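Tokenise the fold.
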Amino acid sequence: MTTTWIAAHRTAVIDPYEGFQLFESRGFADQTLRQTLRLAGEGEAVRIILSNRYGKEPLEIGGAHLRGDGIDTPLTFDGAKAVTVPAGADLVSDPVEQPVTAGQVLTVGLYLPGDTGLTTYSAVPYDTGHAAPGDQLTAPALRDAEEVPTGHFGIGADVRAPEGTRIAVAFGDSWIEGAATTPGLDNSFPAQLGRRLTRGWIVNQGISGNRLLTDEIGEHLLARVDRDVLAVPGVSHVLIHIGLNDFGLPGHIAFPEPGTPPTAAAFIAGLTALADRLHAAGLTVLGSTVGPYRGTVYDGYDSEAGQAVRREVNAWLLSGDHPFDGIVDVAAAVADPAEPERIREEFNSGDGLHVNDAGAKAIADAVDLSLLDL
């Protein structure tokens, strides 16, 4: 059987030097950092991907270690245990020749001997990480550890799987990334949807706060599509949810000025350009209606101007006059029947903007699996 490397976990990343920040960025110095990931698919071997994409200086890694069910081994990079990752670069480990399974949780430990400076990071990691002083790579449990709620160094994983294995990339904002779902349970809606599939799997490239047309938080979707979708090994389908922050963030924090949402025409043109780019690469592209957020606790986010654009964009998506291969009606899956612009109470995370685990499941259950013929 011929095999090849297929993405089994991905983490979309943010520049810690962005001018507009919703999440606290940080660095590390003479510390061991442990972070976990959950594999979406199985293979006969695994390799780990690290990122210094937005670091201003080379990243010194004094050692790396991988743990999981049946795995407890140092990671090497071209045979070396210690390595320096150039600023702006990603790094792929040597293969760990150990079979891995879908749903398996792996822990990646990094010893960071020098001052890393602010790191390439993500807002919603699979689970809360931990950092501890000194080199504790081989310690069964970290001593004097602190919790690290954000993800760092864009940790991803590939598995060596049968050639022809096809996967989907979930691409978009916080509703993709899984903000407000329970850490460590893998309950974002793409993850819960992935558990419904009988073949293939889904990797998550969501960024909380992300937009279609405007940079920060993270590069906008049209700018990051090549790296975060087209470069993902095994991708055949893309599932997109975007728009909440294009419509709501300008009224909450006007960055950049002026604090007004895009027009529906501009947003539709952006979605069309994104779909065309993905179709040109031969991918199946699934769009989705933009979720409800009326009454959110974030001041200024729920503006009449933004809501009007959302209604117009959703009507266009449901009309059939769109470039996508299918539409997931995310909004209908979680809307309050009495007030469709609000999240149903049992699905509301508490902020009126994000869904909880049950809401994410409702979206996953609403997807027609025939649209994901992997």
Q: What stands out?
A: The longest strand covers residues 105-115. The chain has two domains: 3-157, 166-371.
